[in-house]
């Protein structure tokens, strides 16, 4: 059964791979992760995403530009949900728990600025307690996940609409 | 004189009141009876939408309706898997969804209703992480929004398009 699934999967990959020129155009790809749990398009061809190891630790936030080049990566030590609040080509804002609520904004040059809170208060996005949501499209294209056969490892792929 | 002033005040109240009522009222633009329970709606930003329905057998279908409520694309019932389907994006020009025809597969549909697979070598492509919540809905656009009307006697689901006014 596993062999049959593998063979069918490979055939499918080859078949669809051969057909891909008729549809969307692959622009670039990035990573070979055990798991990607959230993708946030920046609206300009880049994106940020959350990756996790198979044991759920450690996890990381990764921010890529429109060419698929790394802008920022933060390796965290939490297995709690990491929520990407917002991602544009100029900044990334995300929240997670690491010793305390950590809610930060990252500039394009990688400078991290914590979002501070007054005494006895927390600044927490309401989504932080929820599982992450993905926004995968922009005006010119979209992001998909290539699930590799047979390893099941995941690669982020950028496609142009045509 | 008193009569004229009173008439003017009443007229002003009527105009203001009528104006407010008009601004607050919603107008149903069209409706489309779905095959089964609707579990995701994605507005295309121009008055149309795509939706995913799932029936009692857990078979899913993806339907794309244009701004007049006419079918622009229908995937047909996907009986290969109980995992359903997920809309990844919808605009006036294209629909992106991940179907589960026995295996996950991302599809790109143009506005003529032609569906093509999105693919890469080495495996299969899906449109988003398969983490909950998957298939989040986008219900509104600049001029209106979409809701599902459920008949509580028959469980028939109907996608309804409303204009804000």
Helices and strands in order, then pairings?
The complex is a heterodimer of chains A (162) and B (165).
Chain A: H1 2-19, E1 25-33, E2 35-41, E3 47-52, E4 59-64, E5 70-76, E6 83-87, E7 91-98, E8 100-107, E9 112-114, E10 141-148, E11 154-160
Antiparallel strand pairs in A: 1-11, 2-3, 3-4, 4-5, 6-7, 7-8, 8-9, 10-11
Chain B: H1 2-24, E1 27-33, E2 37-43, E3 49-54, E4 60-65, E5 71-74, E6 86-90, E7 94-100, E8 104-110, E9 115-118, E10 123-126, E11 144-150, E12 157-163
Antiparallel strand pairs in B: 1-12, 2-3, 3-4, 4-5, 6-7, 7-8, 8-9, 11-12
Reported for the largest beta sheet of chain B, the result is: 4 strands, antiparallel
- What is the alpha-carbon Rg of chain B in Å? 21 Å
H/E series of chain B: HEEEEEEEEEEEE
- Assembly status: heterodimer
What would you call the shape of chain A? globular
Structure description:
The complex is a heterodimer of chains A (162) and B (165). Chain A is mostly beta strands and 162 residues long. Chain A has one domain. Helix content of chain A is 11%, strand content 46%. In chain A, the strands form 3 sheets. Chain A has a 4-stranded antiparallel beta sheet, with no helix packed on it. In chain A, β6 and β7 form a beta hairpin. Chain A is globular, with a radius of gyration of 18 Å. Chain A starts with a helix and ends with a strand. Chain B has 165 residues and is mostly beta strands. Chain B has one domain. Chain B has 1 helix and 12 strands. Chain B has a 4-stranded antiparallel beta sheet, with no helix packed on it. In chain B, a hairpin with a 5-residue loop joins β4 and β5. The radius of gyration of chain B is 21 Å and the shape is globular. The two termini of chain B are 38 Å apart. The chains are: A mainly beta (162), B mainly beta (165). β10 of chain A pairs antiparallel with β10 of chain B.
């Amino acid at each position: 059964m596993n062999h049959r699934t593998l063979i069918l999967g490979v055939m499918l990959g080859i078949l669809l791979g051969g057909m891909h020129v008729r549809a969307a155009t692959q622009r670039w790809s990035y990573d070979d992760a055990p798991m990607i749990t959230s993708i946030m398009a920046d609206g300009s061809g880049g994106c940020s995403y959350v990756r996790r190891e198979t044991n759920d630790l450690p996890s990381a936030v990764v921010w890529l530009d429109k060419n698929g080049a790394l802008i920022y990566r933060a390796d965290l030590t939490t297995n709690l949900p990491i929520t990407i609040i917002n991602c544009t080509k100029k900044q990334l804002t995300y929240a997670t728990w690491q010793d305390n609520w950590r809610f930060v904004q990252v500039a394009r040059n990688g400078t991290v600025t914590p979002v501070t809170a007054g005494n006895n208060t927390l600044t927490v996005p309401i989504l932080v307690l929820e599982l992450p949501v993905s926004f995968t499209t922009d005006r010119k294209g979209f992001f998909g996940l290539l699930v590799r056969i047979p390893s099941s490892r995941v690669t982020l792929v950028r496609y142009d609409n045509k | 004189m008193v009569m004229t002033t009173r008439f003017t005040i009443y007229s002003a109240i009527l105009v203001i009141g009528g104006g407010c009522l008009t601004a607050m009222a919603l107008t149903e633009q069209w409706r489309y009876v779905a095959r089964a329970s609707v579990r995701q709606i994605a507005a295309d930003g121009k008055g149309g939408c795509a939706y995913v329905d799932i029936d009692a057998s857990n078979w899913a279908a993806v339907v794309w309706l244009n701004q007049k409520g006419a079918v622009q694309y229908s995937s047909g019932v996907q009986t290969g898997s109980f995992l359903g389907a997920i809309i990844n994006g919808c605009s006036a020009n294209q629909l992106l969804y991940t179907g589960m025809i026995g295996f996950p597969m991302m599809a790109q549909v143009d506005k003529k209703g032609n569906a093509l697979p999105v693919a890469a070598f080495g495996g299969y492509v899906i449109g988003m992480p398969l983490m909950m919540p998957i298939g989040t809905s986008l219900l509104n656009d600049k001029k209106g929004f979409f809701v599902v009307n459920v008949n509580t006697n028959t469980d028939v689901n109907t996608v309804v398009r409303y204009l804000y006014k």
